[in-house]
Amino acid sequence: MRVVFMGSPDFALPTLRALLEAGHQLALVVSQPDREAGRGRTLTPPPVARFAREHGLPLYQTATLKTEPARAPIVAAQPDVIVVASFGLLLPRSILELPPLGCLNVHPSLLPRHRGASPIPATLLAGDHETGVTIMLMDAGLDSGPILAQRALPVRPEDDALSLEASLALLGAALLVETLPRWAAGAITPQPQDDARATYAPKIQREDARLDWRLPAEVLARKVRAYRVWPVAYTTLRGSPLKVLRAEPLAAGVAGIPGQVTLPFRSGRQSGPPAVVTGEGLLVLRMVLPAGRKPMSGEDWVRGERSLEGTVLGDGEAMDPEAERADQEAGSS
Q1: pTM for this model (two decimals)
Q2: Of all helices (H) and strands (E), which one includes residue 171?
Q3: Hey, CA dihedral for 57, 62, 67, 69, is it positive or negative?
Q4: How far is CA 133 from the centre of its chain?
Q5: What does CATH list as the number for 2-201?
Q6: Which of 15, 154, 294, 298 sits most deeply, having the most CB atoms within 10 A of its CB?
Q7: Distance between CA atoms of residues 328 and 274, nearest Å
Q8: Which CATH fold topology does 206-331 show?
């Protein structure tokens, strides 16, 4: 089939690879423009654009599809089908109606649950025990088109946004290449979604990842798992940002105010990772990223800090601009 592929981040790569390996003709790969990244603010291509360049695939990068000139390269590609995986732009009706086989979206949730921009974090925040991927025939709505195929995946207790994204990306790629020939052959009847069962996963803001220590430890642990790519779950220590990369809840009654650090002691010596008093239980900090340093275990962090016992986290929520720019890089560490 003659395919136009539209995608940008790492999640989209397995689907692009699968299409290539299945022998489909990649008439055009459409991705977001290169953007500055890292502390050096180096102009960096999205993973999909980088892959397309490395494999000699025709590449078109655009930040908009709202104008006719912006849509012209896609129209000129004359696709049989358009495959979309985490592209980041809404498709106008003229593009949705362009290919004879329509536009198929690889969506990382079991629609209609978690429609929207951030289904993987939403899955973890909700404490879902099961998720999956959906191959959807796109329409003008927000992830509301009819379903062509779905495949479920259990959410493991240790899963965070990084691990779940990797698993769902592979699952979605496999399901897409299985579904595409069956769809082209007329062997699939699209199934409408039940709008009454729909939930929504809105676009994430950095403030969403701030840890409010008044919440229960279980809720905070879900936030740490959900906000692992960008933004990374964070608090502050004496006014400096402290990112929390791994944590686990502990049902324990400990005296203290929310945000207060408590250290485990054995035989009069500190032993093990620190924990933080929450609105209900303790949150054990397994891995953290202090300002200006590399990710480290909670134990190593304790050894490098003075007078942590009794210190209250979240005493000042300011994030300096340099640390904020580094959020994306830190999240993938």
Answers
A1: 0.90
A2: helix 161-184
A3: negative
A4: 14
A5: 3.40.50.170
A6: 15
A7: 25
A8: Methionyl-tRNA Fmet Formyltransferase; Chain A, domain 2 (3.10.25)
